[in-house]
Design goal:
The structure holds two protein chains of two kinds. Chain A is mainly beta. Chain A is built from no helices and eleven strands. Chain B starts with a strand and ends with a strand. By secondary structure, chain B is mostly beta strands. The chains are: A mainly beta, B mainly beta. At the A-B interface, β4, β5, β9 and β10 of A face β4, β5, β9 and β10 of B.
Chain lengths: 111, 113
């Protein structure tokens, strides 16, 4: 049974810092892994999707890595901004259409 | 031009009532999903439909019944609502079943009194 864990549960950093969010999963047989952003009271926005054959994906200041063998993914945010404050969710697709989410990391960027 | 829309956004109702949440996507996707996000922010998949056919049905009470009149719509009907059904319900869609990004609706906050 796939389990997805995100650490830390909450993170607060000053503006401008680079930071890393962590995601771990127990079953390495995955189709892909996604990172989502959730703003309070709103839906989820997909940030990056990494296929199982890929090692990383980049979009702007975001870089996500995937190490299937160790069951880990990281989301790197460069030069953080207050607008980056949100909850970040990691989701693993380990069988057709079945996505397992982590509990999220609540990120707060202090101006 | 909303991609995945849900109605209503908020739903407050009494225990025992029956209610429905509607979801529509205008992306031309084949697969649609319902997720439940509980008070601890865990998102769990409930159902998945591909071209109007049920492909995932997680362990949810049979009081929950999804209905897909066409591949652009996946509605969630809940009978005999209970306090524990209070949560945010998200609808999502993806081009196909396996490897694509899912696009989420804004969520429906259900409160059962």
């Amino acid at each position: 049974k796939q389990e997805v864990t995100q650490i830390p549960a909450a993170l607060s950093v000053p503006e401008g810092e680079n930071l890393v969010l962590n995601c771990s999963f127990t079953d390495s047989a995955i189709y892909n892994l996604q990172w989502f952003r959730q703003d309070p009271g709103k839906g989820l926005t997909s940030l990056l999707l990494i296929q199982s054959s890929q090692r990383e994906q980049t979009s702007g200041r975001l870089n996500a890595s995937l190490d299937k063998s160790s069951g880990r993914s990281t989301l790197y945010i460069a030069a953080s901004q207050p607008g980056d404050s949100a909850t970040y969710l990691c989701a693993v697709n380990s069988s057709a259409s079945k996505i397992i989410f982590g509990s999220g990391t609540r990120l707060s960027i202090r101006p | 031009d909303t991609a995945v829309s849900q109605t209503p956004k908020y739903l407050v109702t009494q225990m025992g009532n029956d209610k429905s949440i509607k979801c529509e996507q205008n992306l031309g996707h084949d697969t649609m999903y319902w997720y439940k996000q509980d008070s601890k922010k865990f998102l769990k998949i409930m159902f998945s439909y591909n071209n109007k056919e049920l492909i995932i049905n997680e362990t949810v009470p049979n009081r929950f019944s999804p209905k897909s009149p066409d591949k652009a719509h996946l509605n969630l009907h809940i009978n005999s609502l209970e306090l524990g059904d209070s949560a945010v319900y998200f609808c999502a869609s993806s081009p196909d079943r396996t490897s694509d990004t899912q696009y989420f609706g804004p969520g429906t906050r259900l409160t059962v009194l």
